[in-house]
Sequence to fold (174 residues):
Amino acid sequence: MSKRKTLILTFLLLSRAASAADLVGQASVIDGDTLDIHGTRIRLWGVDAPESNQLCRGADSNLYRCGAKTANELDIFIARRPVSCTSVSADQYGRTVATCVVGAADLGEWLVSNGLALDWPRYSHGRYSAAQRDADRSGRGMWAGSYVEPWLYRACIRSGGTPANCSDDANAHP
Fold:
């Protein structure tokens, strides 16, 4: 192989490595399934977390802001450690959709296994379904009480509902 071809091949390989490395750094938690690293919005692949203003019912039947709780718990778990994300695609809002890890922990799996987000089979193809079954059986997070799936909550809001009535399972299905 010529020296020029070797240089071009090396450049291409380094470019690929650099594009994956673009998504490494200290993350700011935007909401339960969205991060920001160096100005890049990253939507966690395969999971759906409650919206910031979404309400759930705890084991005591009292309402709580489950979306805000998810974001807070994720921020505490990350604890300013470096987050490394591998891009999967881009979403309709221009965010990078990626799998992200802190240490050896996949953030999507961590959220689902703690009952803070749901496996979103439409996108995950069931990657986190075992973690979700375990969270459900153990009554962790949202599984301790009742909730509306975040995708149904958003549909209800788009149909003119309010956070209070869209968070109630009886009213959330448009």
Remarks:
- The radius of gyration is 19 Å.
- Helices lie at 3-21, 66-78, 107-113, 121-124, 129-138, 150-158, 163-166.
- The longest helix spans residues 3-21.
